[in-house]
Amino acid sequence: MGELPTPVLAVQATRFDGGVAVGRSLWTFVKAWATACRGETPAETPCFDRSVVKLPGGEDLARSVLRKFAPNLPVTAPPAWFEEERTRFTRCTFTLGERDIQRLKQHIVHLGEANGASPLLRPPSTFPAVAALAWTCFIQCKPFASDDDVLLFFFTDVRDRLDPPIEAGYMGVCLWPCFVSLPASEVHGELALAAAASAVPEEVSKMREVPVATWSFLTSWWAGRPMDRLMNVSGSPRFRAYEDADFRWGKPKRTEPIRMNHDGQIALMGAGDGHGVQVSVSLLQPAQMDLFRSHFLDLLG
């Protein structure tokens, strides 16, 4: 077949130089952008005003966090070894339907009841249930000793918990860092899912009156921590990555996070059907990914 007289496909890639965006900021921006492309008015007016966050000493805190975690700004190019290493990771994406999630939540409750653990007052919400599932699979696919402390890191958005609350259209970062630590033995036995699912909301409940002030806690927490025992979760089942990215030609058929560059990284977003959850996983060893997949599907039943 010869060359077609007219192109049948045009692809546009948009790359933004500079700036920092966390999950909610990113998807708030994408939603506003797509809404404008459809010629509609956004439900929330995008807000870029940092002063809406009423935090005493906030400017000093922001400077200290930047000095600790981004000392080379405005230089943003990653080191050469990072670019080389990121090609070695094995990545996999799972989609949990609404029934899968409900079954998982009930399974966690029944596990606790059947093994004499403290019963949960109610089934866990979606984030703790899915995070517990992924964390359990991560621990079980790794050769950790039973007395090792294994770690889970995630952020929770606190804009609704501040006084006064932050408006929904705020584009800035308003996050609380959460760290969960359990003995590996607790995430290996029959109660693994229930133990992990209970630990996540317990950590969130420790939030203080001015939660973002504890960002300063990060500096001391990271010191001496074995990062090979850490799984970090980014994103949220509430991120409507499909519905909010309709640029007037319909929802995308597939959305994948491309910056999965850590051994034990999990990225969550809402699934394409609008009810489930998409779970993307990054691991360094292909054999460990095979084990992760096997445990994941087994625990889902």
Q: Can you characterise this structure?
A:
33% of the residues lie in helices and 15% in strands. The protein is globular, with a radius of gyration of 21 Å. The chain contains 8 helices and 6 strands, in the order H-H-H-E-H-H-E-E-H-H-E-E-E-H. It has helices at residues 23-37, 58-69, 80-85, 98-114, 126-140, 192-204, 217-222, 286-300, and strands at 90-96, 149-157, 175-183, 230-235, 265-270, 277-283. The termini are far apart. It is of the alpha/beta class. The model has no long low-confidence stretch (mean pLDDT 83). It has a single domain, classed as 2-Layer Sandwich (Chloramphenicol Acetyltransferase), CATH 3.30.559.10. Keywords: Acyltransferase, Transferase. GO terms for molecular function: acyltransferase activity, transferring groups other than amino-acyl groups. It holds the Pfam family Transferase.
